[in-house]
Amino acid sequence: MDVALDIGPGLAKATIAGRVNGELVDACDPIESDSTLSIITAKDEEGLEIIRHSCAHLLGHAIKQLWPNTKMAIGPVVDNGFYYDVDLDHTLTQEDIDALEKTYA
Predict the structure, then answer these.
(1) Distance from C-alpha of 22 to C-alpha of 96, rounded to nearest angstrom
(2) Under CATH, which number does the domain 2-41 receive?
(3) Which residue, 29, 50, 58, 89, is the most exposed by fewest CB within 10 angstroms?
(4) b/e burial code for range 19-57 (CB count within 10 A of at least 16 → b)
(5) Does the pLDDT at position 105 exceed 80?
(6) Confidence at residue 1, expressed as pLDDT on a 0 to 100 scale
(7) Three-state DSSP class for 73?
(8) Which of 13, 10, 31 is nearest to 21 (CA)?
(9) 3 state SS for 11-57
(10) Tens-place pLDDT, residues 16-26
């Protein structure tokens, strides 16, 4: 993140992750030696995949907060977004979706 900030505040704000010597790293990981660095933003395919992966985890967490007995299956990233397969004891209503969006936000 410090490297991105040195380049500019806009890049620092947009930074999602990085690659140090080809290895995917968190944006906050320190760089401890001379390295080749790539900064990943949402404009990069990999950046979008990271965002979607994180959102799937947040969605799963929100579902478990609202309906603790939910059985979680998978929550993969797909080409146009992400989803989470779950086994609920009821059919979701619009009110449930609204509550989920409020918890998720």
Answers:
(1) 43
(2) 3.10.20.30
(3) 89
(4) ebeeeebebeeeeeeeeeeebbbeeeeebbebbbeebbe
(5) no
(6) 73
(7) coil
(8) 31
(9) HHHHEEEEEECCEEEECCCCCCCCCCEEEEECCCHHHHHHHHHHHHH
(10) 999 999 999 99
